[in-house]
Amino acid sequence: MRRNVQVLLLVLSGAGVLHISLLTDVCLRFVKEGLRPALVLSGAVLVLLGLVAAARDGFPYDRRPPADGRGGAGGDGCHGHDHARGPGIAWLLFFPALSLLFFTPPALGAYTAARETGAPSQGPVRDFPPLPEGSPVPLTLTEFQLRARQDRSRSLEDRTVALMGFVTPAPDGGWFLSRLLVSCCAADSRAVKIRVRGAVPPPADSWVRVTGRRHPGPASREVAIDAEMVRPVPEPVNPYQDSAPPPTR
């Protein structure tokens, strides 16, 4: 790989990082929201370094021989430029650089969530604040699960709630409403899953809003909801943030 191609790769990589972090929200499919400024800064630095290298080296290189027919400082007829090549396999780096510009990868979904089989720890029983008035009450999957497992006052009893997440098929033919949460990036994601009962499974990975009541049962067993209504919703901008469903219009 020639020097001028290396510079082009540097600029393309920086432009791709800026595209997913500054111009779009695609970066939220890789990292948490708080890391967006670091990505913007990294992309800007890569583009700046590429432009500085191009200006310093006279990009594209002038390969015309000097007027007197002699070579430059290196005696090779190329004005003393170092035309050492990098390894040929480096050309493969263009694929991830271009993919950041032209390809939008999907967020992690049902395939990842289905492979988490361990149940969360029970946790201490404690008092939760009362649920707000109104019906249904929008909750995150995490809050619904914590209240089902740990709330001494049983605030979920006889209350209709609304949850939102993506569909994860279960091995027994049922399905879960799921969210993937990240601490830093998609590589450290963990799943929060609520079993949905009384509704036909929608397509895997589709985002839905489920309205219903907590399925009765011991807190030590899996947390489930008896669905009264299931309807499709758009995928949220930040799929790794466990947010409550917005109010219906």
TrEMBL record:
UniProt protein name: TIGR03943 family protein
Region Disordered, annotated ranges: 230-249
Assigned keywords, A-Z: Membrane, Transmembrane, Transmembrane helix
DUF1980 domain sequence ranges: 157-240
Annotated InterPro entries: DUF1980, DUF1980_C
A Pfam family annotated for this UniProt entry: DUF1980_C
Domain of life: Bacteria
Protein source organism: Streptomyces xinghaiensis
Chain segments annotated as transmembrane: 39-55, 89-111
